[in-house]
């Protein structure tokens, strides 16, 4: 319960502060925010398990949503389920011994698909920008997975979890817009399928770098400071020897 409360509190507070320091949203559509604070519940999900990570993120995003746009229906439709699913998956898969070659092949297909979607639904300059982020993230992911076997579960879980979370956002925000007024608007402005794809691409492309680049060193520092949190010491030791 203590870890859950700290997770939710830190996630809400940091997200709120970062948004007002750097209020970036999905280009052309708004609403979905630039959100580097995803690293907080990802770390908690690995250290304390999928339930702490998932429920802490769900509560944290709801609090920050109420402080930023104040629409509980939108938060319960998009923010809460996407965050719960994403970080529960990260917490679960981080402890699993996955076949990294199959996972990397799947991530390669996913990368190609997201790049194609970006070029299909976005303007040329934005498509190139997001494609560069997506491709660079995959290259970094491949390098980290190849060189650091003990983080393969986390990296795979982050990629799959973020894809699931991004897809929920990309589906639910346009559905919300069909029946309710979007935050910041004064009239009903239904979004198209393209708007949903923009949300998916924006969320995935802007959050995956923070997970795959900053996740492992932060977790390594946590394990050094609190060795008792490392519940997979044997597997990590053998991985390091290999």
What does this structure look like?
The protein is globular, with a radius of gyration of 18 Å. It contains 9 helices and no strands. The protein has one domain (2-241). By secondary structure, the protein is mostly helical. The model is unreliable at 234-242 (pLDDT under 50). Helices cover 77% and strands 0% of the residues.
How would the blueprint of this fold be written?
Layout: H1 2-21, H2 39-48, H3 50-68, H4 72-93, H5 100-121, H6 124-147, H7 152-179, H8 193-225, H9 233-241
Helix pairs in contact: 1-2, 1-3, 2-3, 2-4, 2-8, 3-4, 4-7, 5-6, 5-7, 5-8, 6-8, 7-8
| Spatial extent as radius of gyration | 18 Å
Helix content: over 70%
How much of the sequence is in beta strands? under 5%
Structural class: mainly alpha
The biggest beta sheet is recorded as: none
Q: Low-confidence spans: pLDDT under 50, at least 5 residues?
A: 234-242
Tally of DSSP β-strands = 0
Distance between the termini: 36 Å
Quick summary of this structure?
77% of the residues lie in helices and 0% in strands. Helix 2 crosses helix 4 (72-93), helix 5 runs parallel beside helix 7 and helix 5 (100-121) packs antiparallel against helix 8.
